[in-house]
Amino acid sequence: MAVTAAGAQKTAETVEAVFRIESARIIAGVTRVVRDVGIAEEIAQDALVAALEQWPESGVPDRPGAWLMATAKHRAIDLVRRRETYARKLAEVGRTLEDAPPPEEPAGPDDIDDDLLRLIFTACHPVLSTDARIALTLRLLGGLTTEEIARAFLAAEPTVAQRIVRAKRGLARAGVAFEVPYGADRAERLGSVLEVIYLVFNEGYAATAGDDLVRPALCEDALRLARVLQGLMPAEPEVHGLAALLEFQASRIPARTGPGGEPVLLADQNRSRWNGLLMRRGVEALHRAGGGPYGPYTLQAAIAACHARAGRYEDTDWATIAALYAQLARLTPSPVVELNRAVALSMAEGPSAGLALVDALRDEPALKDYHLLPSVRGDLLARLGRHEEACDEFERAAGMTRNARERELLLDRADRARAGRP
Amino acid sequence: MPRFLSMVRIDENEMAGAEFPDEFNDRMGKLLEEITKAGVMLDTAGLMPTSQATRVTWSGGKVSYTDGPFTETKEVVGGYAMMQCKDMAEAVEWARRFVEVHPAEWSVTCEVREIQAG
């Protein structure tokens, strides 16, 4: 039967879609056999190429994911056998090679989930730098191409490619076991996984550089990872807490930028543009995080829920938010948390209460380059009618931010403060 | 990552006396779990039959109401799934897996539509 060009195009699209859906699971399943994520990824790519060659002729198989997995596993087992043969040959001449694991039987659905979880913990392993963890996680689990990752992080593609190669080598060199940690280090290792997802989301949510305030695609990739993790670790409260936090944050994305791409502050956002479905999902995930004691992500989700519950900015329950920030400050003390607590306190009890806290942070070395410190201080001073000082602070903040959109907003606030307007 | 609404169209007359085999429910349950675990499914539900439905129509400046069942159309929306996918091809692939778990003698159509951003 002749294959039409349109049919071939459709098949290629199907192959790619199937591969995107399955690739993380295939890489995870193959890693269990070959014990090396770099090799596993290459084998997964080989299976994709085989599908692109064969399916346009033979048609898409009934269970395309299973076909890809079987093809990849088959190649993996071949590779392991070749290694074993090689090891035997070496042994004959009196050398040894590391033990290769025996080839395994095809996995059931639970095994696949388990492999996926192992892959997540491996990609987010603390032996890797944060940048390497992020790149590897997006590549292996998010299914992003190196080019997409580079674009998302405004980095050069060769830099990111290099980072991923080094990360894979680093894992192999450190002899990182392909496993889900169940010991004393489990909490810390899970923390590392959650942090990677959180950082990816944040880079999309508050772009640290460049012209766009928000890069929603990156937020969505992180959100998908958080949702996947919820399915894999339903008994971990903080996993649901992180998912809840990201659902709430993502629900506000449509309202955070104005028609010209300029940032819109929480107080000025049109709340009817907050996405109701995502807010409901946030509420549901927060509920699944259980009754406490809350971990840091769940606490932040609870704060986000307070904002979501307020139909108007004036209705915000700032006292509860300030109390939640106080809990967060006890759990994970940091100047940034303290700054947020100051904002909440200034709303609950008045600008002077907030200013006392902010002034205590002025010499904090960690906030030396943090534009939100002068920005918040400027806001509090303006509310106290100290316009001159407010103007100085806004200008200082404008000089510190790397985001062009944010700079415009801060300079505008400086102008308004100079004119003695709110 | 765009969102897609998959409207599941079924023939109500065909479904009226249809048996739901046990293994169909199992297969469907497993698939829905898989789509959720993939981080793709945002929301999904089946709808009550059109015999319990009402249409509210605005035409010629007047409101009129029509109670179901709506027998004039062969296929009616019997359920929906809202998914977040990288592209239409991925959404269509999930829809393909969804229709495939149904018994061979049923006819089921998923109309996959991208949801406007914003």
Automatic annotation (TrEMBL), chain A:
Residues 189-289 form the DUF6596 domain. InterPro entries: DUF6596, RNA_pol_sigma70_r2, RNA_pol_sigma70_r4_t2, RNA_pol_sigma_r2, RNA_pol_sigma_r3/r4-like, WH-like_DNA-bd_sf. Belongs to the sigma-70 factor family. ECF subfamily. It comes from Streptomyces zhihengii. Pfam families: DUF6596, Sigma70_r2, Sigma70_r4_2. Residues 26-83 form the RNA polymerase sigma-70 region domain. Keywords: Sigma factor, Transcription, Transcription regulation. This is RNA polymerase subunit sigma-24. Residues 120-169 form the RNA polymerase sigma factor 70 region 4 type domain.
UniProtKB/TrEMBL annotation, chain B:
It holds the Pfam family YCII. Residues 19-98 form the YCII-related domain. Belongs to the YciI family. PANTHER family: BLL0086 PROTEIN, BLL7171 PROTEIN-RELATED. This is Transcriptional regulator. It comes from Streptomyces zhihengii. The lineage of its organism: Bacteria, Bacillati, Actinomycetota, Actinomycetes, Kitasatosporales.
